[in-house]
Amino acid sequence: MKTKFILASLLICHAVFAQAVYAQPDKYRMTQQDYIEKYKEDAIKDMKKTGVPACITLAQGLFESESGNSDLAREANNHFGIKCHKEWTGETFHKDDDEKNECFRKYNTVLESFDDHSNFLRTRDRYAFLFDLEMTDYKGWARGLKKAGYATNPEYAQKLIKIIEDFQLNELEKGEKNLPLTASAKNDPAEPVQKNETKKAHAKPGTKQYLYSSNDVPYILAKAGDSYFSIANENNIRLWQVLKYNDAEKTDIPKEGEIVYLMPKRASATEKFHLVKEGEDMHFISQLYAVKLKKLYGRNHLSTEDKLQEGQKIVLR
User: Fold this and answer.
1) Could you give the count of Cα atoms lying within 13 Å of 302 in the half-sphere of its Cβ?
2) Strand order in the sheet with 210-214
3) Intrachain domains 202-261 and 273-315 with the same fold
4) Looking at domain 31-176, does it have CATH number 1.10.287.380?
5) Rounded distance, CA 245 to CA 266, Å?
6) Burial class for 4, CB neighbours closer than 10 Å (0-12, 13-18, 19+)
7) Structural domain 273-315, CATH architecture
8) Digit-coded pLDDT (tens) for 171-199
9) What's the pLDDT tens digit per position in 70-115?
10) What is the pTM of this model?
């Protein structure tokens, strides 16, 4: 009898202890509001770099990570359930999912998770149309993600829209729309990379950004931390336009001091030709003289496979 009593007591203690252990974390589980307050600044930083609306990033992260309480979110800072895939070379986290012991990406910070998620959208062709939408068009983004096959849940778009509207997350884009997306330019701008027909720089109205022109095409010099998206936003043009004007890809990042045109380049330059210097390529020459890259290739009977030689003559008109 005594043995049974001791055993029963131990079982009761174990049950009470287990209940305490497993109930305790509920106190520390983040609510939806906790999640938003904690990560909204990261979402805004990501928006400035990548062009993905902060409200969409927050709504997806909140939904996919169970308000930051999932194993992936807590132990791997992975808020979107992104798996390793063959291109991933960073740290990993393994857990059972569709299959046993699947590989997921592990990040040092939540911001890294946000950035990787946005870059995933930027580099997949099926999501390209989203970046032609206004950042304030959260309904278009939510429906577009579902249309592009981001999730199989038939109510995915409605769920994101409800989260955004319940917590007024769309106000994040409105509040940031007119703010500079990158660090301000220095009071003394860097020398323009090109000198051919470059007109004197002047500050754009309402900004600290200096505007130049070459071949009658206006351009700015990229600052440290700039992206093509931030430049497009600062100059009230679409991302696809600034990419097209500069023969750039969505994944390209302009270097500090690099020329970025704000209008289409010309079909020809005022100079007749250019002599290639060491390290120059056709894109550099196209930017140097504000001449469309396609026109340069055609005029010189060259293709993207051809390598330029030092001293080679490139016809400009």
Assistant:
1) 20
2) 202-203, 210-214, 217-221, 259-261
3) yes
4) no
5) 10
6) exposed
7) Roll (3.10)
8) 887 644 333 222 222 223 333 334 344 44
9) 999 999 999 998 989 888 889 999 998 878 899 999 999 999 999 9
10) 0.54
